[in-house]
Structures are given as C-alpha cells and as structure tokens.
Design a protein that fits this description.
The chain is an alpha/beta fold. The protein has helices at about 35-50, 55-60, 70-90, 100-105, 110-115, 120-135, 155-175, 190-215, 220-225, 245-255, 260-285, and strands at about 10-20, 20-30, 90-100, 145-150, 185, 240-245. Strand 1 and strand 2 form a beta hairpin. The longest helix is centred in the C-terminal third of the chain and has 26 residues, at about 260-285. About 35% of the residues are buried.
C-alpha cells in the first residue's frame, strides 16, 4: 500500500463524481480499515483477474475491458464480493444527484456565481453538507481526508477545488477551520476505496435516472440498492438523494427569500477571491 495513506486519526472520504446527471457519491472508510480493505481487495482482483473495477464497464461488458468475456456466474459472484467488501469496510455512504438541465434552468445567475457555475459543484456542496451533519451528529468523529476520483479535465478539477475552498471558507466563518483542506485527486486503479465508491455511484446514477426520467433500473442496480440498504431511507447504510425540479426550486426560493443569505455568500466569495489573489502574488514573487 502507498505511504501516503491518511493518518490513523482520520476517516477517508472517497468521492466519485458522475456528470450530465451529476451524482456526487462519498464512501466513508475509517483510516484503520484502509490497509485491511486493500489486502482483501487485492485477493479478490488476483483471484478473479481484473486490475481496476469499473462498474459501468463491468455491467455492460465493455468489449475493450477486462470484463468482456466474463460469464454470468462470474459476474454475479464478483459483484456480490464487491458489495460485501464495500459494506464491510465502509461506515456509511452518501449520494446527491441533480440533473444538469434542471440546474441550468432553475438556478439564478446570482446564486450560480456563489455556489458554483455547474450542477456538479452544487452537488458536491450538498454532499459535503450531508457529510458534515453526519460527522457532528451523535458520536464524535475524527477529521476527514477527502480523496476524489481523478478528473482529467483541468477546469472540472478546478471547480471541485473551488467547492472545497468555499466549504473551508464557510467553516472558517463558523469558527471551525481546517476541515476541508486535506484532500487529493487519485486514480481509481491505485485506490480500492475509489473502486468501491464507483460501484455505489453507479447504483445511485441508475436510481436518479429512474426518478428523473422514469428509466427502469438495471437488475444489478436493484440488487445493489437493496444490498446497500438504500431502501431504508435515512436509516440505511446508503443515504441517497435525487434532487427533483420542485426540490431545487424550493431550495432556491428559500435562499433568495432571505437577503442575508446572499450577503453572506457574497462576503465569503470576496474573502476567497482576496485569498486567491494573495496566494497568486506570493507564488509570483
């Protein structure tokens, strides 16, 4: 395992982001479980013959993938073990889905400039909020390290970095800084936790397509949804939310109805811009 694993006082949050219908999904794994997870994952992939478990390629038997020639018995066997390992080492999973066209249509420019230009940054903001509520509810939980799935597009990566910066700025305003500074982007082939969260994210994407487009769920999605206890709503291991147009309009109306919300967002954005400007000047000198 790599030497850059989080300290044992941390929980690792592995985050996968799917676009068009933006699905931001997080898997919470205690740091002490990362090494055992890696060992069990290595055993599985060596036994079954794969190097990087991509749920979409696996389900649809991508002809250029390692899964192209797998028979049905092997597919069901491996999918079962992937679910078992994911749930064995993960404390909980969270997911937020929002449709791009709904976001572009409903979100006012005044809010887009403060909460993110794109629907996927808004989804990440809400995912971080859910994680924060969970962390500080009930038993005390240690700080998080956030590990994002690698993004090839520089602008998309920059948008996620901006979302983390905004979250850190809001935390600092609330007097609890430092909660969103420990994050990185890693490739899934290197990180078993990211391959696990890819499985959850695919299931949540199928659920979102059903909720938003009335598209029937794939058999593997239904099995995964039940196995991850998504059907138990707020009490399940997986807590997934698909934002319908009415939900998004209601959120916008609530934010816009109180001028102090926009004022607060504006102050935060000004501070972040000033911080970026200072950072850029220091790098150039």
């Amino acid at each position: 395992m790599p030497d850059t694993l989080p300290h044992y006082s941390l929980h690792a949050i592995y985050i996968m982001l799917l676009l068009v219908i933006a699905v931001a999904t997080a898997l919470v794994i205690p740091a002490r479980q990362i090494v055992p997870l890696g060992k069990e994952w290595d055993t599985l992939k060596n036994k079954e013959g794969f190097s990087d478990f991509s749920m979409s390629e696996f389900v649809y038997k991508n002809p250029k993938s390692e899964f192209a020639d797998w028979d049905e018995d092997k597919r069901k066997r491996v999918y079962s073990r992937v679910r078992q390992i994911t749930k064995k080492y993960g404390l909980a999973a969270f997911s937020v889905a929002v449709n791009k066209s709904h976001y572009d249509e409903i979100m006012p420019k005044a809010l887009k400039s403060r909460v993110g230009r794109h629907h996927y940054t808004w989804a990440v903001h809400h995912l971080l909020s859910f994680l924060s509520v969970w962390r500080f509810s009930g038993i005390a939980r240690p700080p998080f390290e956030y590990v994002f799935h690698w993004m090839e597009e520089p602008s998309s990566k920059a948008d996620i970095e901006a979302a983390m910066e905004r979250a850190e700025g809001a935390a600092a305003e609330a007097g609890v800084p430092g909660g969103y500074t420990n994050y990185s982007f890693r490739k899934s082939k290197e990180i078993p936790g990211l391959q696990c969260v890819d499985t959850i994210s695919w299931v949540c994407y199928q659920l979102a397509q059903f909720a938003l487009r009335d598209k029937p769920m794939h058999e593997f999605a239904t099995v995964g949804w039940e196995a991850f206890e998504g059907d138990r709503a707020e009490k399940g291991w997986l807590r997934a939310v698909t934002i319908l147009p009415g939900d998004l309009r209601k959120w916008v109306e609530q934010v816009m109805a109180d001028p102090s919300n926009l004022d607060g967002l504006q102050r935060l954005e000004e501070k972040l811009l000033a911080r970026r400007s200072t950072s850029q000047r220091s790098r150039s000198t």
